[in-house]
## 1
Amino acid sequence: MIKLLRAVFCVIAGFAILVACAVVDYRTSQGAWRDGFAYIGPAPDLDGLIPFVEYQPAVGSQPSRSSMQRILFIDFDDADWQSIVAEGEVPDPDKPEALAGILCNEDEIEVDGEMFRVTGRVHRTASGFSTTYLIPLNDRQFDAADDDEPKGMLGSRTRTGFYDREARQHASDTGFEWPEDVEPLFVHDAVPMPTGVPYAVMVGLALTLYGAAVLQWQTVLWLHRISGAFNGLVTASHEHSRLFRFVLLLNYSTFFYVMLAGVLLPLANLAASQWVFEIFSEGALKELGQAYMDGNIPLAAWETFRNNFVVQTFLLSSLASTIIPLFGVGKTMLSLVVVGFAMAPVWSGTIDALTFHWVTIALELQAYIIVSFGICVYTLEAWRAIVTLMRGYDGEAPSTSRGFRWGFEVLASATMYACLALAIAAVYEAVTLIALSA
């Protein structure tokens, strides 16, 4: 009973921390530039668009600058420059000066052999500019084209576009249509959270996942007592208790260590987020992403379950590990590294999803880790059986060495648990994500 109460307390405390962080993030991340977005391509028929030219330096010319950082020559007026500066001074249009985003780390940048000195920093809540160097757009660098769009003087290494300060509102207007050849310059807002908030989010998430893991395992033990369900898994957790705790600790700690790395490396996290976005929009999980975009809850739940259990768990973990020893263990660790890094709470607004998505995370992580434990036991028991056969053992095998049959029973039991947990997670994720999006 004390263990259950402690687990419930951890879930409640962790959830409270997540909600508090979401409130702090929301209240400190609003500003005049919060709803803006930068696009490449021709400007749609909207008022107030700000033209810019993106400069793309030659390959290898600036090895110290991250590929996620950009240089924009932008046509701000005096009021725009004054409102977007958080510290320092507005760059002088008649001098080689620039304004740097909050995640830009250079004191000066080179544009075709000319050095531009950074005079100040862009406000943290300026959407899309966290990883951008801003330089005043004027006749000294660029001429205006006949249609009043900027025309680059730097050859093919420029792209023209526009910045829409009210992009969020325009995107929600049902009667407005974007031109087909317009593409976003950034994957998302890329507005960093206030300092310290990401670490508090990780603490809250750790508490909720710990409490949820205990509650899930106690549920498994309860089902085993009343019905004998998951007998192989429960018995193996007692016989291999040290291995059980080690697998849980190793996987959960890996998840949070790489999440911490994502917080400390925001530009790399931004690149990982872009990669994940492309997988769901254009890559292997395009059908899954489209089901969520269409708002089809049954299809989204099935596609989620099919990917998470049928493909990732049953085929690539459990079944593959019966052929290649411990293959699923390595695959799960790699998945946790990718997911943990991409899910790092770096950007403003991501906590909102965590306040309800933590349930999905808790169910899925526990399922994957339990299967990894089953794979470890299967491999261990299979190895012991092989050694026994090689030695010509004629007597009754010890209780901890029951051979392939016992190892397979444990793996099958762990896989059945994952099937149940991932089915619940798929339905919950489809309902909550689609309902909240609507």
## 2
Amino acid sequence: MSPSRFFACGVLWLVLFSLFPAHAEVSLTTTGMSALTGSDVSVAEKSAFDDALFKAYLEVALRSVPASSSADLVQGLRAFVSSRGMQDVIQYSIATRSRLENILLLSMDFRLNDTPLKDWLQTRALTTPLALRPRVLLAFTTRGPGQTERAEWWSPDATKAYSPFETTLMKSLQDAGENIPPPPPHPPAVAAGKDRALVLGAAAGADIVVSGLLTHRSADALTLESRLDLSVTEVRTGKRLSSMGLTLKGTVDQPTMHRLLAAAVVDRVRAEIARTVVVVSPVVRDKTLCIEGISDHDTYQALIDALRSMDAVPRIAVSRIQGHTICHTMQIKGPLQDVLDALRQKRIAPADIVVDGDTAIIRLLDQ
């Protein structure tokens, strides 16, 4: 067989390898751990594999999720990974296996299709940075347990700070990744007939106001009964998104009651906030990438694998073959130059890289 015909066959195999993974791929290594109990090592190996796979999903997800959403991510990710099974695992292998006393350690190499994971992150609004999440103002009237006890931060003579209950609820929401600004230092007077929540929300530059009435009553020195009525209102539209109420009673002090009330309503409040979150989804554009001077499969495949591992490259597929050149259609997020700069830093092979508008050319150099 002549060298030219041999090369043509090689290129054909390159194309076949490149056409199949039209989805986004990511390669990574994680280590799973499991306890060695009993004589059946296979049970421990399965548990360590599952642990490594979860960590692989977690590592990929954290690349797209701000720190403010990390707690929310961990809370929901295990159910997502369990629902996917092995559907997203393109390839896996055991890199190393070791024991530390009664603990099994499996270092696993994974190739994953991360498109379903990224879609899931988008639908749960986990990719939205804290500053772009809705600003949520709290505005509760607190009464009791004494007959004259009353707290409203917007009152003319009040300290412009959240009440103890509002502070507890604020911390619960902030820990969950919500954007809770402090009360405005100079709240406006609310005219008769106006909706206090909307007036205060507009003054604070809030998108949502969580407001209501908390009433404490003490039947005796030990028992505290608290009634909370709460509404979630969107400032822009004036629409009430949700209302709820609950009563708790027990032999607890006020700080404990505040924690119990906040824990009881925080998920419902967050569910309403989530309905207004603007999901940040980078614009994906089609670009052209041509690789010239291909002489071996390994170099070409290393370049393609490197591109597919980038979060900025959701998809790459062969579009044209001519001689020693293979051209591709490549979907990218962000500037094409940034993608090629990241590829250049990987130093896979000596090459000239040129970007001209929506087209990039990689000219492989003879070594």
